[in-house]
């Protein structure tokens, strides 16, 4: 097996060079990566082990499993305590200051690593790694565009998957199957341990108003208190909206897209709110450029909502989400965060999902979500399924 | 919404009492829980927040989200820094020694909690929580038995899902759908960040010999280097085994079961290895009693493998797994661990999965996996699908 799998070596070199630039800027001498998402980013594959990236020079991949990866930059290890010795043998001095992924590394693993590098000062590298990853390379943008195309194919099939009398979860299961047949990898990577999810979120009717513990834009009671989010077995009946927010991970890089279907005609308030969501997307597509503060996009969205008098339904009704968008890529909750107190500033080739959504009592959730590339001309949409509500009956 | 959802209050009280006993034994004055699996264990639902369990007295549930849970033991908070003040207001003194989940808590969150409790000595509570959770209550055993019954229903359907010319992933998608329609929650909770998985693992032919980074019993190249495990698109052809290890989470508590199907007749070596796996299960079912060292079960399995001369195929061929079984419950990798150097001793009402498996070159993976309750009379099997290889054609 080759180290970089489907990702060209030049692409990996580019990512490492960007990380090294950030490492130097922050006064670190090296970072040690062990989080699966960051291992994938810096190698092109997931393995069990560590990526050692010095501020200058070549990265070394210390791999525990799988066996059989052949590359000059790979060293096989059984345990992290071997790394310092192997670096010394290679004539590489230990760093004075080493960055670790403190936002994802558990305390026990962290202490073990710190003990394995005596005399080395540990600092937090999570923020700079997140920052570097938030600006996508051309190769990553292409992975995201490919996911967007296949993601759209799945949404095109949804009207044909509906049968009268279905529950939300029955429809969800058919969407999951169609998505997997289209090549969806299923896994939905989320940074941090607190958010959990299975594949997709289908909300029919008032279940959209059930609050969830998780920090997603929309809620849903879920099927079981062990996973209280999403579909809850609601039978889809006339007058209900059916919001579909389905997994877009077809390449290791995921797009995020939401569309709304209806069971017959929806009431006027719901239709107006849906149009308002589309209007917000159009406005933000123009306003979102490199240099735009993320908080400004949020405020612009709120101003449009206020003009329509729809505040009480915006981003939830009984319980509200505190953001309207977020970065996406290898993980679903990357930078920047589009929220009122966000200090993030849009940069060229950020990739963001915008999801101005509403919950209308007795109807359900409406609004669209799209994934965008930030370009100098505004936001480039890469999730192109039709945005109008499609009637299932 | 009520706090304990589907779990009776007495059941929660029993779990808290067991935890408190362990907390006192270890010299802690309290533990603060924030991991979703442990929140579910101690409350009966997942929420965003913390469970404060003093060594004696009543637990308090500090909840951020969802809104609307009404219970005397619930206090709503916005941030963990409020907890110490709220405890003081309630007349509860701060603990001198507080346990945290250091195996799952990230370093940043941990530091924030430690700062929120000035003067309190932090210690690791992960081992005692894992230990308490490894001994299931009667209520938990019933949840697991229910998952086992529904899990078996899914396996009964598998021969009807196969069509000639299918790939492993196409068959997997149909099994996923059948499983979801049976009520499978999909999510597969794994303690720790390093293992990832989507729903089920179907291995056809030599793909079973592809090494994976993850610490699962079997491998598989997977569909993409971002998730290198399981089905890889192999077309199922005559002479191949098809091993199905599918998600058994129907209740928040999951059973683990593997069965093997074949495309026509398999060679004699594969058939012998499969029988050897069943023989190991029968032997371990008798030997596994409260007080039996887990390592002894492992050694017994190896001795049977050696009698058959099948060592080189046992628990993988190119790359081998270092265990034959593991505890299951809310998470798939609970205690005890059935491995050569395990110090775990079986206790009554541990629930363990045993998976003595083989990889036979040019055929694929064979062997069964069952989930068992440890009882004074031996291991009680709760995954009852037929164990013989079923021919798909």
Give the overall form of chain A: elongated
Please give the CATH architecture of the largest domain in chain A. Answer: Alpha-Beta Complex
Main pleated sheet of chain A: 6 strands, mixed
The proportion of residues forming helix of chain A, as a percent range, comes to 25-40%
Distance between the ends of chain A: 50 Å
What is the CATH H-level superfamily of the largest domain in chain A?
Creatinase/methionine aminopeptidase superfamily
What Rg of chain A is obtained from the alpha carbons, in whole angstroms? 22 Å
Largest interchain contact: A-B, 67 and 67 residues
Instruction: Please report the number of helical segments of chain A.
Output: 9
Q: How many domains in all of chain A?
A: 2
Question: Can you list the strand order of the major beta sheet of chain A?
Answer: 4-3-2-1-5-6
CATH topology (level 3) name of the largest domain in chain A = Creatine Amidinohydrolase
Low-confidence stretches of chain A: none
* Rounded mean pLDDT score of chain A: 97
């Amino acid at each position: 097996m080759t180290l970089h799998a489907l990702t060209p070596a030049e692409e990996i070199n580019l990512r490492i060079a960007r990380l090294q630039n950030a490492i130097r800027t922050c006064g670190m001498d090296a970072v040690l990566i062990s989080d699966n998402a960051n291992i994938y980013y810096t190698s092109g594959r997931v393995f069990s082990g560590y990526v050692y990236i010095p501020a200058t020079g070549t990265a070394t991949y210390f791999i525990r499993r799988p066996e059989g990866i052949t590359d000059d930059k790979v060293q096989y290890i059984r345990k992290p305590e071997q790394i310092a010795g192997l670096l010394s043998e290679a004539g590489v001095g230990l760093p004075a200051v080493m960055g670790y992924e403190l936002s994802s590394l558990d305390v026990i693993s962290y202490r073990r690593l710190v003990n394995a590098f005596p005399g080395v000062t540990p600092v937090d590298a999570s923020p700079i790694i997140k920052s570097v990853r938030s600006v996508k390379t051309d190769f990553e943008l292409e992975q995201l565009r490919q996911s967007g195309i296949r993601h759209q194919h799945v949404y095109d099939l949804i009207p044909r998957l509906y049968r009268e009398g279905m529950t939300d979860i029955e429809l969800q299961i058919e969407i999951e199957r169609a998505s997997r047949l289209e090549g969806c990898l299923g896994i939905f990577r989320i940074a941090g341990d607190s958010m959990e999810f299975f594949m997709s979120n289908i909300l029919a009717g008032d279940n959209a108003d059930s609050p969830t513990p998780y920090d997603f834009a929309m809620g849903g009671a879920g099927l079981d208190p062990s996973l209280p989010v999403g579909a809850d077995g609601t039978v889809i009946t006339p007058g209900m909206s059916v919001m579909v927010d389905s997994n877009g991970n077809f390449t290791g890089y995921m797009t995020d897209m939401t569309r709304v279907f209806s069971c017959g005609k929806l009431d006027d308030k719901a239709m107006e709110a849906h149009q308002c969501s589309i209007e917000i997307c159009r406005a933000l597509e123009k306003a979102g450029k490199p240099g735009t503060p993320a908080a400004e996009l949020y405020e612009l969205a709120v101003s449009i909502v206020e003009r329509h008098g729809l505040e009480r339904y915006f981003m939830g009704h009984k319980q509200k989400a505190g953001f309207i968008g977020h970065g996406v890529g290898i993980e679903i909750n990357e930078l920047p965060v589009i929220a009122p107190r966000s200090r993030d500033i849009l940069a060229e080739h950020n990739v963001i999902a915008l999801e101005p959504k509403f919950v209308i009592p007795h109807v359900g959730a409406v609004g669209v979500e799209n994934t965008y590339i930030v370009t100098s001309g505004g936001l480039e949409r890469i999730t192109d399924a039709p945005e109008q509500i499609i009637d299932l009956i």
